[in-house]
Specification:
Length: 204
């Protein structure tokens, strides 16, 4: 049996931090895991920016409430769920994800959580476990699933490598060029053409 383990942002939804940057005008918040390979470095930088600018959790969730899935994402996700099992594996946070999950029809999501102070400030972030995307693939393989993974960023690469089949969806050129071993697609229709033959053959 197959299972698809996919990233969230950039695959089904816009990048949350880019949306926050556009709303607040803070250019430094536009950096994502598509730009910075070290997730801890990136998150510490983000938290420092939030503190310096007096931004609280509600400021971010107000932006997220206004976001919608990428065009065609819900149809693609519904097709996947009708065809096989799907888990979204993300480095986002429970406190961020709920409005987007509602708009995607509540798919299964594995992600992290935040420590929020009494005043609503984000004090720290708590990883469910380090390299959780990679470890999710390992766990699915131990359950005898044939795993397909979909991502677009540096923090997806260990997941794509460990899966039986890894796919890059709309990656930036730096990621695409560094990891040219993975098939690349730039539309859901193209991605379906890549993965449908695999899902149709239980032995692949």
């Amino acid at each position: 049996m197959h299972i698809v383990c996919s990233d969230l942002e950039g695959i089904f939804t816009p990048e949350i931090w880019i949306s926050v940057a556009e709303k607040t005008g803070i250019e430094a918040l536009k950096l994502t895991t598509r730009d910075v390979p070290d997730y801890d470095v990136l998150m510490k930088k983000r938290l420092a920016i939030l503190e310096a600018n007096g931004l609280k959790l509600k400021d971010i969730t107000e932006v997220i409430d206004s976001m919608n899935p990428l065009e065609g994402a819900l149809d693609f996700l519904n097709w996947l769920r009708e065809t096989t099992q799907v888990i979204i594996v993300s480095d986002t946070y429970v406190e961020f994800a709920k409005p987007l999950m509602a708009k995607l029809g509540w798919p299964t999501l594995l992600c992290h959580n935040l420590t929020v102070g009494a005043d609503g400030s984000i004090e720290s972030y708590n990883l469910r476990q380090r390299d959780s995307k990679y470890k999710t693939i390992l766990s699915m393989k131990e359950l005898n699933y044939r795993v397909l993974s979909i991502g677009d960023s540096y923090n997806d690469i260990t997941m794509l490598r460990e899966a039986h089949h890894g796919f890059l969806f709309c990656p930036p050129d730096n990621v695409k060029n560094e990891f040219s071993q993975f098939p690349v697609s730039y539309s859901y229709e193209e991605l379906i053409r890549q993965i449908e033959p695999i899902l149709g053959d239980g032995n692949k």
